[in-house]
């Protein structure tokens, strides 16, 4: 086994959407960057493949939105359940009002190739970050197994984007707060002649084979290529664990939708866990920071994380460019809290509510069929689409922000607000 030592401005561990886009942003500021991934591209990733306008906006900034929306884009979300259906077009915000969906095999490869096209970026595939070399919480180097060869890489800054399980983050002390709400989800692909349907569909009345309503939703995201991504996810907490087998639930859900969508058999079925809403601690050290899924930047209400991955990538590069010599241990969690703290806290609280078995069967019919339907459902679609922004000045946004501040204030005493141990 050879031993090689190299030095870069930035080392990025993990080349999913978060890591690959961080490499693009780093390259644009002239930083010599090494981007590594344990897999080789193209590679699959268990996902719903849905891209809301918020993600498309980030892709515009990266210069690849047209390559994603060129062949297929969608206009909004159709929500179904409890005897009703609502059509919610993506709203006109400063984001684009186009959404899309693209298989992660293709999408992640697109972003990886974009990163690779920058001369400041060196890429290593089949390169797994194994061990940190630490001095206190300063990361002096990383031992990497690159196609069987052991290499030590030194970098001024290290961005860790190693996904939901964050194996390297764990070695730096990253901890998942298991008492917070988390998701369990499964997806499959199905052939259909209806894959050009310009809406994504969510079924929020997700019943298991015994007819019991589950705290989650089923989705059908058309891909515009003869297939749909079909899946289901449920929310869980340690005290109220979702008692479901997601793959079985997925097959039941596919059966219910088969006729309307003329679906072929499910294939490439895969499932995964989703820590959400910033429910991890120790997301930064002196010269390193966690982004995307490794920092649990996933919306607890819809399981969406690609947009947060792309956004935290840009924020991370900004942060280290603005603070080239500062210790990031407190700076990075602060930055994340500023951007997402209130939204995540409110979404986590709402998601926790959904895990009470009485809640959905009671609230669902009211939302879909009651007199409040017109007001509630477009709002729900905005929440599901991650489209509440500081710039939104309408009633919903103000209500959301006020509730966020109130909940943040109410939970201030909780250890989650301890900035040395947690993101939110
Ligand atoms: C069933 C399901 C459905 C979902 N649906 C959606 C959806 O429709 N829309 C949406 O926006 N989000 C969705 N999500 C969430 C979304 O998949 C994630 O938020 C997104 O993949 C995060 O990207 P990432 O780059 O942070 O991590 P990843 O995409 O997981 O990339 C992490 C990378 O790190 C690499 N890696 C890991 N360890 C190491 C190591 N030690 N050394 C080197 N490399 C390493 C891995 O090989 C991988 O390529 C879904 C998730 C699930 C589970």
TrEMBL record:
Residues 8-317 form the FAD-binding domain. One of its GO terms (molecular function) is FAD binding. PANTHER family: CONDITIONED MEDIUM FACTOR RECEPTOR 1, GERANYLGERANYL DIPHOSPHATE REDUCTASE. This is Dehydrogenases (Flavoproteins).
